[in-house]
């Protein structure tokens, strides 16, 4: 059975879904996309999820590869910040300690947070954080001894 809506509504729906996907690829939030398209962020999320579910596996792999490339480029930029020499500046002047410029840890710590965020996203994208099912079997009985406690009074 085909779509029973008029052809112009079907085409508008396809266009809207394509636009949602395009804007998400640029990194826009659901809320920002909704504002741009004149729909709620919930509607954007629904369109996004529905469209993702209909994408063939090969296209998902292509998208995943694009995302990995994008994360790689971001990681390069974050690492550049990590490797730079950052000095503390206050009121337009370099802060010194014993005549030497004082290192500013702020940009370094922000870059570390960014690297960790990129790596977290990569792990999710690649499914590296999938829980591992573990089963523990034991035949051993463990006995705990409580000293100084009247166990009968706890009942």
UniProtKB/TrEMBL annotation:
Lineage: Bacteria, Bacillati, Actinomycetota, Actinomycetes, Streptosporangiales
The protein's name: Homeodomain-like domain-containing protein
Originating species: Nonomuraea monospora
InterPro entries per record: RNA_pol_sigma_r3/r4-like
Pfam families documented for this protein: HTH_23
């Amino acid at each position: 059975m085909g779509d029973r809506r008029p052809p112009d509504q079907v085409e508008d729906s396809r266009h809207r879904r394509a636009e949602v996907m395009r804007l998400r690829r640029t990194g826009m939030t659901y809320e920002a996309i909704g504002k741009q398209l004149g729909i709620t962020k919930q509607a954007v999320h629904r369109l996004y999820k529905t469209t993702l579910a209909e994408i063939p596996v090969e296209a998902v792999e292509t998208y995943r590869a694009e995302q990995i490339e994008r994360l790689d480029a971001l990681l390069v930029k974050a690492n550049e910040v990590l490797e730079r020499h950052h000095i503390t500046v206050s009121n337009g002047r370099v802060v010194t300690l014993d005549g030497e410029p004082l290192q500013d840890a702020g940009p370094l710590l922000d870059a570390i947070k960014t690297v960790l965020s990129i790596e977290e996203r990569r792990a999710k994208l690649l499914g590296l954080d999938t829980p591992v099912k573990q089963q523990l079997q034991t035949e051993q009985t463990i006995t705990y001894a409580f000293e100084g406690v009247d166990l009968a009074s706890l009942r």
